[in-house]
UniProtKB/TrEMBL annotation:
Catalytic function, reaction form: Release of an N-terminal dipeptide from a peptide comprising four or more residues, with broad specificity. Also acts on dipeptidyl 2-naphthylamides
GO biological process terms on file: proteolysis
Predominant localisation class: cytoplasm
Record's keyword annotation contains Repeat: no
Lineage of producing organism: Eukaryota, Fungi, Dikarya, Ascomycota, Pezizomycotina
Key words of the record: Aminopeptidase, Cytoplasm, Hydrolase, Metal-binding, Metalloprotease, Protease, Zinc
InterPro entries: Dipeptidyl-peptase3, Peptidase_M49
Protein name according to UniProt: Dipeptidyl peptidase 3
Family: Belongs to the peptidase M49 family.
Amino acid sequence: MSQLGNTVHHAAAFDGLSAQEKLYAHHMARAAWNGTRIILRQVFPEANGIFDFIMALYHDCDGNWEQLATKTGVSMQDLDRFLEYAAIFLSNVGNYFGSGDQKFIPDITKETITRLASVSLPTSKILEQIKRPMLNPLPHSLGRPGPLTQSSYYLGEDCLESSEDISLIAKLMEDRFILPENTRLRRYQRSGVNCYDILQASVVEDKSPLGSLSDSGAPDKMIHLVRGDHTEELRQICGCLRQAIPYASNPAQKQMLQDLIDSFQTGNLEAYRNSQRTWVSDKAPPPIETVLGFVEPYRDPLDIRSEFEGIVGIPHAAETKILNTLASKADQLVCKLPWVEDSGTSKGPFEKELFEPPDFSSINSLAYCSSIIFPGITLPHYNDIRQDTGYKNIIFSNRMVSESSRARGLHMVDKSEQDTFKQHRFHAYYIWVVLHEILGHGTGRFLTESSDGSLNFNPDQPPLNPLTGKPVECWYRTGQTWTGVFNDLATTVDECRAELVGAYLIDDIDILRIFSYTEQSEVAYNMYLQLGVDGLRGLDNYDPTTKKWGQAHSRAHFAILRHLLRDSDGLYIITCDAENTTLTVKVDRLRVISHGKPSLGRMLLNLHIYRCTADISNCRHFYEDLSHVDDEALTWRKIVISKRDPPLAFSQGNTYRVGDDVKLKEYEPTARGIIQSWAERGL
């Protein structure tokens, strides 16, 4: 296992804050970091124990690792291997990679790790509790609980065995207005009766019956709502939020914090949704930007329950100005997408009449507590809030810097092109991410039926489906949602569609000029080369044993490449030499715009229309075919894995109070620096 250390720099941005803003940032950062153990608990039972073990070793030697090695008779090489494991564990907040959800284990023997733990009796006791699951390569990935995969969202033997039970529980939760994002599910037997507990995250602890799943009312499958999951961590978070309230910069921030407290106290996600509405309305951007709560559903096998996340950031004024320039032109840029009719008065049935640009900002993250540090996000995930109130796009500028320093998958680029690829890769990547966030996730109009039975289109003259030329035959019925209809495909199809929007528009000269590019050739060419490289790299997150994808974006990237290989008339050539383990992707520069862009447009139009019309049947056939990994792709995968890029490990700073002042401490981008930063958070 190799590691690439990256410092997430904050000092210059932090020093520019006022005393009040620094105090607000400090308390919000403490709230974010206090969510660490929630994330660990959501990964697997041993994750908190491994965290405790790493922290115990640090405190046993007070960070003097050489002294620990000498005292326990462990070689420096073995020590460094363990420290590398620890740094990657902490950067992923668990022993499964945030990107790909694959398990990683220490590259040292059981005897060596036992000798390290012998430094003290308490540390040895911690190790005994977690040694076996920490060192066992199985389960090798996150997913539906089984011999090879596991999920801490579903506890108890055969929790997901009955799809009928799961559907009935989902319906029961919907009827009782219990949103799933902050819940887990536990199955067990008591006195011969099958029971399910819906574990809801809250400070308050109680248990209440919700009834039986049986139509007859017989107590054969009893359901309870159990509040109090993650109670200690949420209590600490609420304390930090209360301390932050006096330093909020405006009434909207204060209201948001109070709604967050109410939600974390009670488990009621309607209060959380209120906090998101207030958050979206707090524009400008505010001096300190924050994200806190159960946000991303990527790790739930059912794609509905969400991992906790805490982010605190400081806006980057110059970059935000550029992004807002793009946002101001967004309504015009939407007209260049393949489903927009742009008759002058209407964009057609599959796009909103007016694209309201979101609040778009570039921020330096001060604290980013998550299993994966994204380069950009679009929130909130609730589609009704996006439609009715709006949403925010955020680019993390100091996270993006880590991308500028490395060219992932470089070995798959022909040697004659590698210098050009390295020179332009980051510029293309940055614009791709920006377009992904603002126009990828923000566009589109769903055809829907309201609770009173009315439709948001004329049923007597329904819109023509551009894929068939015939009137649309399906739409979202009353109560249906995007995630509910598309289920396991919702996240990956949404990300794929957003990636396609960014790639499709990247050659647009009006967009490029906003970012100070005067011609399109190199940026566009590099974009298509990245699509090839990233499509192949995505295979790293495919599990041939379970035939499951471990990351929504990776599956999307492979599907895009597969479509381009089939549909762009020779734009790509992939050369594979299994014997010499070489894999090279080449792009015909002269066909990028003439063949590549129309091909992306065709795939994008398909996914968009499926999404707008709730056409899960055709979408599943189309997307599962494109993301199917055949024998040829499995050969590619072996080479990709043999030359995989080193995992990212981020060094983030800590804030601390000195009287009425707040100081920032940063750490070296090394394994030792990363471990020290986490130890000094006192979690």
